[in-house]
Write a structure and sequence with these properties.
This protein is an alpha/beta fold. It folds into three domains: 2-121, Rossmann fold; 129-299, P-loop containing nucleotide triphosphate hydrolases (Rossmann fold, 3-Layer(aba) Sandwich); 305-372, Helicase, Ruva Protein, domain 3, CATH 1.10.8. It has helices at 10-20, 34-40, 59-66, 81-89, 102-121, 137-150, 166-175, 197-202, 219-222, 238-250, 276-281, 287-293, 307-325, 334-342, 348-362; strands at 2-6, 27-31, 47-51, 71-76, 94-97, 156-159, 184-188, 203-204, 216-217, 227-231, 252-254, 261-263, 267-272, 296-299, 331-332, 367-368. The longest helix has 20 residues, at 102-121.
């Protein structure tokens, strides 16, 4: 990490230069004033550490001149609240009061270094149809609604049969939202034992129950700032539904065994293949929670209504599996393609992906035959 230190006091400047020389992971260059720094700063610098009270151009004016090009830590011996607030508004990340020890400064630098590395590791997340293995007219209609919904924080309920790609849609919406660089946390309600749902969602403190040997953050906390995807929401135990509703309304959660409330800022996307209105009639799902989750319903059509996608998905999966298993690229015969298109696909995309992988593995030649799909017969 390359750091510029701007300090007019020669003794302070030399002290910092000597102290920082012990940290080989940092490359430090010092400047005696802001104007000198501005002449020499280039894009190779990762962080600026500047005094606030300097002759000529002070630290605040210096930060304004930097115009957001660099991350900045300000140090000063006589800070006022007004100056601190002004520097924060300019995007300054840290504000160190003199005198401080070197460890305090190094801690601040390492915090910033960690933030920058995290940012660099995040791939730009503006998404498009390439999130999907294929596209069809039916899918594009849903995508248009998803694109509009993604720009908001409205709760979305994804509806559709098992295997239609609800989690892919949830991820697509997150990637196209203002929360794209924050976590996307997915949890399947049907996969969690009923007695563990509450602790999984909200977390727990050490000693909250017999096996709680250490504290654990819940999924709400892990998704902070981002999106929490609640798959198979219709399987959530009725007793936990009231607590979920309260968490969404109050925007806060409480870990099991803790009196402390934790503020949350997340976007909720839920999904189900169940008829929630039928569950409401049967007393299995709360009506108030349903309306809270169902601000924007998205009905994802089954694969049998998206025929245009079948061969696109199949071809993509053949290529992927041939690479995975080290095979030369295989192709579908004409009869195999016809059967893929005529089959009803009760398991939707999930079934198609499984069928293609099996066919790639078991086919005897480079051309996958109709009978090697094993759609209507047992192996």
């Amino acid at each position: 990490m390359k750091i510029a230190i701007v300090e007019d006091d020669i003794n302070m400047r030399k002290s910092l230069e000597i102290a920082m020389s012990d940290y080989k992971e940092f490359e430090v260059k010092t400047f005696k004033n802001a104007k000198d720094a501005l002449k020499n700063l280039d894009d190779s610098f990762d962080l600026i550490i500047t005094d606030i009270n300097m002759p000529g151009m002070d630290g605040i004016e210096f930060v304004k001149e930097l115009n957001g090009r660099f991350e900045v830590i300000i140090m000063t011996g006589n800070a006022t609240l007004g100056r601190a607030i002004e520097s924060i508004h300019l995007g300054v990340k840290d504000f160190l009061l003199k005198p401080f020890d070197v460890d305090t400064l190094v801690e601040a630098i390492k915090r910033e270094d960690k933030i920058q590395k995290t940012k660099k590791s995040v791939v730009p997340t503006k998404s498009n149809e390439s999130d999907f293995l294929g596209t069809s007219q039916a899918l594009e209609k849903v995508l248009k609604i998803a694109d509009k919904a993604s720009k908001t924080d409205a709760s979305i309920l994804l509806l559709g049969q098992s295997g239609v790609g609800k989690e892919v849609f949830a991820s697509y919406i997150h990637k196209n939202s203002p929360r794209a660089n924050k976590p996307f946390v997915a949890i399947n309600m049907a996969a969690i034992p009923e007695n563990l749902v509450e602790s999984e969602l909200f977390g727990f403190e050490k000693g909250a129950f017999t096996d709680a040997s250490e504290a654990k953050a819940g999924q709400f906390e892990l998704a902070q700032g981002g999106t929490l995807f609640l798959d198979e929401i219709g399987e959530m135990p009725y007793g936990v539904q009231a607590k979920l509703l309260r968490a969404l309304q109050e925007k806060e959660v409480r870990r099991l065994g803790s009196p402390k409330l934790i503020k949350i800022d997340i976007r909720i996307i839920s999904a189900t293949n169940a008829n929630l209105q039928e569950k409401i009639k049967n007393g299995e799902f709360r009506e108030d929670l349903y309306y809270r989750l169902n601000t924007i319903p998205l009905h994802i059509p089954p694969l049998k209504e998206r025929k245009d996608e079948i061969l696109q998905i199949a071809d993509a999966m053949v290529e992927q599996n041939c690479k995975k298993y080290g095979f030369d690229l295989k192709l579908f015969s004409k009869d195999a393609k016809e059967q893929l298109l005529s089959y009803n696909w009760p398991g939707n995309i999930r079934e198609l992906i499984s069928v293609v992988e099996r066919a790639v593995i078991l086919s005897e030649t480079q051309e996958i035959q109709k009978d090697e799909l094993f759609l209507n017969n047992k192996i």
